[in-house]
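Long-time lurker, finally posting.

We've been working with Carnosine synthase 1 (ATP-grasp domain-containing protein 1) (Durusdinium trenchii) and I want a structural starting point before designing mutants. I don't trust myself to interpret raw outputs, so I'm hoping someone here can both generate the structure tokens and explain anything notable. Sequence follows.
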Amino acid sequence: ATYVELSVPLAARLAEALGLPGLRPAAVDAARNKHATRGCLKTAGLPTPRNFLITEESKLQEAAQVVGFPAVLKPVSGAASLGVKKVTNPMEMGRCYKEIVDELSTLVVSSGALVQGSPDNKTSGQNAMESGVDLTVLMEQFLDGPEVDVDVVMSDGEYRYACVSDNGPTLEPYFNETWACCPSLLPKDQQVSLRDLAVDCIKALGFTCGVFHVECKYTSHGPHLIEVNARMGGGQVHECNRLTWGVCLVEETLLCALGIPSRPFVPREPISGTAYCYVNAGKSGTVKDMSKLEELIKRENVVWAKPLTRVGAQAVGPADGLPTWLCDLFVRGKSAKEALEYLQAIEKETPVVVE
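Top reply, 14 upvotes:
Generated this for you. Predicted structure of Carnosine synthase 1 (ATP-grasp domain-containing protein 1):
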């Protein structure tokens, strides 16, 4: 079993080779390749945005004609929104495509995750592919509307648990996350349609069991899938599900790996509301003060306030590139609305000072 994105294909292949329960490699590969995912959805008759696979720069014009604008350029396989950018015209598209390929060429593996390396570490396309980095870019139709996460537990071919959480507006053009709250504040009918789409997409990819972190949007023309991650979500997702619904996704992952049918107990009402965020740098500059985080940790209903940088480090604001995450805040309340308001009030206190 694994909880790390880059290890999912290996864990699936080991399980298959050893005759053990687990995810099937073909399904994992289809989920990790966004173009293959779109193909599976189309075959299953599920909503599929216009998309085009860009294997080289000469394909840009054809991609623009097929997909149109606005659109999103993203690595065909990636994580944590690295290399994801919105484009609104052909000129911007050409510039962003080059930026994404250059960015992918410098990615390195750190603690099992892809992270941005320095330009000095730039690899050739061949070396990048050998280290697991695919330089292929997918262009697809921009999807409007609010983004959600759907955490799903599948067992014996059916979902046994599905939690819908809201994501706040992302910082364009890089789609950096701003906040999330659980349970979702969307109308119940929209939550149900998002949950059903997430489960249908998981099935369309060929999965019958496991824990999945599914990203979706409720657009002006209904629910759409962004991507299926065939593992527990990272960051705050484990604690969010545990504190809100009492379901431990770590345990559920192990049950799947052992071939034990999953039937988590889910209360009729949430235990509490939760909200969390990675605080993005509002401007470029030097990190001057982080002492506020030590005081925040002591406050009631603050689950954690973790530093993600250090005093003296350089921070990048949205005007100059992909914003730097300064700290990780996680709070709880009697409801999701109360938790979110509490989180946003804390964020306004500027827990990390950049000058």
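Before you design anything, note these points.
The chain is about 30% helix and 25% strand.
The chain has a mean pLDDT of 92.
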